[in-house]
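TL;DR need structure tokens for one chain.
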Amino acid sequence: MLEKLDLTKTLSKAEYKKKMEKLEPKLGRLQRECREYGIPVMIAFEGYGASGKGVQIGELIKALDPRGFEVYAVKNETEEEKMYPFMWRFWTKLPPNGRIAIYDSSWYRRVLADRFDKKVKKSELADAYRSICSFEEQLTAGGMVMIKIFLAIDKKEQRKRFDKLLGSEETAWRVSKRDLKRHKNFEKYQQMNEEMLTRTDTEYAPWNIVEAVDRKFAAAKIFAIVVHTLEEKIEELKRQKKQEKKVGKQTDSSVSNGRLKESILGKTDLSLAYTKEEYKKKLIKLQKKMEKLHGELYRRRIPVVLGFEGWDAGGKGGAIKRLTERMDPRGYVVHPTASPNDIERAYHYLWRFWIDMPKAGHVTIFDRTWYGRVMVERIEGFCMKQEWQRAYKEINDMEKDLADAGAIVLKFWMQIDKDEQARRFKARQENPEKQWKITDEDWRNREKWDKYEEAVDEMLIRTSTPGAPWIVVEGNNKYYARIKVLETVVNAIEERLR
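>> reply
TL;DR here they are.
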């Protein structure tokens, strides 16, 4: 592919000026329209060393309002970034709706420079490609415009540009030893780029290859690509809005269509219980273990992600409290998840969870999680049918990224029956210190118990995986539930440390 490119393409100064007089104001207008329609845009620049990524980004942003974009120079991972899954640093650099993010090199470092430098093992490549494609598919499905530009030059042109940079003290620093090593092995590195382009050229995020020997030709082509892509997206959005206006926004809060007959919750034995004496004895023993294991997690740099879901009054808070009582508060954090705020709604729904994932050696506990997408948002009609249907795969992919990065991922469903919930609701209402825990919405949700139960069953079946299993906790007896959670976490950590 790359070796067959015609890199002799050029553009005269007059032709360039004529094209840019049309393209530059168009791009400025499209940026304003993207802001108006709330369209987020990511523009990733990849290419060989000295292919002109910085120069072309500089040309592109001249036509943009600086208040509406941000440029990220993606270099080697910092020590902090190394403590997270490799896609974490890009999830944390997403543009919100209506803004543009431009990347000088990108998430493709993993399968290009890092691969060449042998920072990535051969066995890790497949997972890296899966993570990249999943990242791009999730974002574009959620409305992101993804523009990927690859700047191509040949070995001779690269040598010429390197020599020019090295010839001046002011620019010599821009050519690293690694750049020169990749130049020396240009054919090998070219093959890696070929593989990357082939494996990640998708319908939702296609590659645009730009012949970059002539910088004027490259700039005009890049402008044309960006303008065309944004025009298409805006037209598509306008058509969608017209259609929605005609028929109304289509949501579907229905539960399974009958294909998933198995009921996980229906098999739960809610008679399981411990006496107060049994509970206290087990609790002391398990909390001592947890205290010790927490220190070992930090020493061995193992991250832990724990997610808690369950019925209202199912005992999530009580279980989390007993789990963390003897843990070092500097090494864990509990995130109570509420409805997304205005800032969070401006991003992909998984963004707010990615930014709170633990670094190596720390524990993050989510009191309610990303599974709201396939439960409350689905049942209450807060998202469209296709959005919650694709969320199962999106969630599985995110959790696989976490597990592949070495995290222990456990998800707990706190199960109680309807009668037990009513009893706990009533007890909360009668206790002045606990009345804040009960709301009118809690009572309303009981009316949709059967719908939620089917949705939960489907969620458990579709998203319980070896790397991120669901644990259904029999919760009618609070003592039993708290001990099961503690035992499960302790066992999982001990298993990892063996």
